[in-house]
Design a protein that fits this description.
The protein is an alpha/beta fold and 268 residues long. It has two domains: 3-76, Orthogonal Bundle (Chemotaxis Receptor Methyltransferase Cher, domain 1); 87-267, 3-Layer(aba) Sandwich (Rossmann fold). It is built from ten helices and ten strands. The chain has helices spanning 11-25, 34-48, 53-61, 66-76, 87-98, 115-127, 141-149, 164-168, 184-187, 222-233; strands at residues 104-108, 132-138, 151-153, 169-171, 179-182, 190-194, 208-213, 236-244, 257-261, 264-267. A seven-stranded mixed beta sheet has the order 6-2-1-7-8-10-9, sandwiched between helices. The chain has a three-stranded antiparallel beta sheet with strand order 3-5-4. Helix 5 (87-98) runs parallel beside helix 6. The longest helix is centred in the N-terminal third of the chain and has 15 residues, at 11-25. The chain is globular, with a radius of gyration of 20 Å.
Length: 268
């Protein structure tokens, strides 16, 4: 397969992938996502020595190809994230924590490769009581693996508050020069779990005091947004906080929430 004869992703193949993603994850891929889909799946065509997307979809339809279908979901799930993204949230949490005492159970419900839960862990280590823990979940196995490793390039530290890199992270040496790793003390407080927010949630989830559902609702229909949010609220204590992305909204959903700040809500 040469660059001058790259296969194109036809209408039929793209519609199949749209349907597959919607059924597997609830994510509705718009027609404008076709170039992104084609680019991300091209590496699978090359790895498998396939001539075009039609041949790849024939493979995906085979019952024994569960692993490959799961890989497609991993490749097509957008995982843009970085440390202390939307810093207003973390400043709000620092003030909120100053008024609280007692145990804190937190959930980063779309944790991607770990930057969000580890940012939250640093804030909790600085401002919370000693009894706190974080559940971090995602649909993608590949990003969960990266999150558990907790190794990131030093270029990802630009938004760290002064002194926090030294207090909460370890600088890499030798082969890891140029990287850092989240400290063991914080890693031990964060547990990772594969959870699909479009499916019934695990029955063993404990009540939460804080849920971060940031920058994930934008990928769903209005009905799915409401259903996901309502599902998570069943696991949020009254008085607990729900944080969503600044570009997202739960307005008009009729949920037991009271706005406290932009994209910050209290469970009634």
């Amino acid at each position: 397969m040469t660059t001058s004869h790259l296969p194109s992703l036809g209408d039929r193949e793209f519609r199949y992938l749209q349907k597959m993603m919607a059924e597997a994850s609830g994510i509705r891929m718009s027609d404008g996502k076709r170039p992104l889909v084609a680019g991300r799946l091209m590496r699978r065509l090359r790895a498998l020595g396939l001539r075009d997307y039609a041949q790849y979809l024939d493979l995906l339809r085979a019952p024994e190809q569960q692993v490959e279908r799961r890989l497609v979901v991993d490749l097509l799930t957008t995982n843009e994230t970085y440390f202390f993204r939307e810093p207003q949230h973390f400043r709000f949490l620092a003030q909120w924590l100053a008024r609280r005492s007692g145990p804190l159970r937190c959930w980063s419900a779309a944790c991607s490769s770990g930057e969000e839960p580890y940012s939250l862990a640093m804030v909790l280590a600085e401002h919370a009581s000693s009894d706190w823990s974080i559940l971090a979940s995602d649909l993608s196995q590949s990003v969960l693996h990266k999150a558990r490793e907790a190794v990131y390039p030093m270029t990802d530290t630009d938004a760290f508050p002064p002194g926090w890199l030294k207090r909460h992270c370890l600088r890499g040496v030798g082969a890891q020069d140029g990287n850092f790793r989240i400290s063991q003390a914080l890693r031990e407080r964060v547990s990772f779990r594969e959870i699909n927010l479009m499916r019934p949630l695990p029955q063993d989830l404990e009540p939460m005091d804080l849920i971060l559902l940031r920058n994930v609702l934008i990928y769903f229909t209005a009905d799915d947004k409401r259903a996901i949010t309502a599902r998570l609220l069943q696991h949020l204590r009254p008085g607990g906080l729900l944080l969503i992305g600044h570009a997202e909204s739960v307005h008009g959903f009729g949920l037991p929430l009271r706005g406290l700040a932009p994209s910050v809500f209290e469970r009634l």
